[in-house]
Amino acid sequence: MRPSGRAPTHLRPISLEVGVNKYAEGSCLARFGDTHVLCTATVEQRVPGWMRDGGRGWVTAEYGMLPRATAGRTDREASRGRQTGRTQEIQRLIGRSLRAVTDLKALGEIQVRIDCDVIQADGGTRCASITGGYVALYAAFRRLVELGIIKKVPLTDQVAGVSCGLYQGDAVLDLDYAEDSAAQADANFVFTGSGQIVEIQATAEDKPFDETQFLSLLGLARKGVDELTRLQREVLDLA
């Protein structure tokens, strides 16, 4: 039995609330159970210096956790004077995932910054950030179309992420913290809406796992991402 009482194939209750920030060009509050991440998209009419005059745009991401996102207070990284390696790795993953489905040439020399701020953490924050970040990005692009800055939304597909793991010997979908902290193995899967692989991160936490177990995790992840991309389409009012 999972601590939450969920079946192995069930996601936590998921909600994606679009337009939660009145200032950002795009925004989404992603809730994966008790993990809540605020994703905002900021449009800048310039690109990094190394990309100037190249005719291509850029999508990048920043990630951070509020001090009481977890059971005990954690100092803001700004007060420490540097980001942790974990933070840098997660925000690079978010940026890679969103760029994987963005037509940077069609975007032109525009940069979009996706800020993912974890309000409350209970496992799967990077996956919630990618899933909500896509919604915020789409909303920002749609705003640019409305303003006549670009002709169409420069996205080639959807993208979403979900975690899976081996808990008490069983493959389970969408780990919360209680499962993640006790899992034999855990993995993060990022897929496009059409089922293509963007990234897989899989680690044995207790003992090695075999290919059959990995394929069980892969199958669960595909099911989970199918549900998440359906929800993305629903909240964005896409056919």
Short description:
The chain has 239 residues and is of the alpha+beta class. The chain has helices at 77-80, 85-99, 104-107, 125-146, 177-180, 211-235, and strands at residues 14-18, 26-32, 35-44, 58-65, 111-120, 159-167, 170-173, 185-192, 197-204.
Descriptive report:
This is Ribonuclease PH. It holds the Pfam family RNase_PH_C. Its EC number is 2.7.7.56. With 239 residues, the protein is an alpha+beta fold. It has a single domain (14-236), classed as GHMP Kinase, N-terminal domain (Ribosomal Protein S5, domain 2). The protein is built from six helices and nine strands, in the order ββββαααβαββαββα. The protein has helices at 77-80, 85-99, 104-107, 125-146, 177-180, 211-235; strands at 14-18, 26-32, 35-44, 58-65, 111-120, 159-167, 170-173, 185-192, 197-204. The strands form two sheets. A five-stranded mixed sheet has the order 1-2-3-5-4. A hairpin with a 2-residue loop joins strand 2 (26-32) and strand 3. Helix 2 packs across helix 4 (125-146) and helix 4 (125-146) runs parallel beside helix 6. The longest helix has 25 residues, at 211-235. It is globular and about 55 Å long. It starts with 13 loop residues before the first strand and ends with a helix.
Topology at a glance:
Blueprint: E1 14-18, E2 26-32, E3 35-44, E4 58-65, H1 77-80, H2 85-99, H3 104-107, E5 111-120, H4 125-146, E6 159-167, E7 170-173, H5 177-180, E8 185-192, E9 197-204, H6 211-235
Parallel strand pairs: 4-5
Antiparallel strand pairs: 1-2, 2-3, 3-5, 6-7, 6-8, 8-9
Helix pairs in contact: 2-4, 4-6
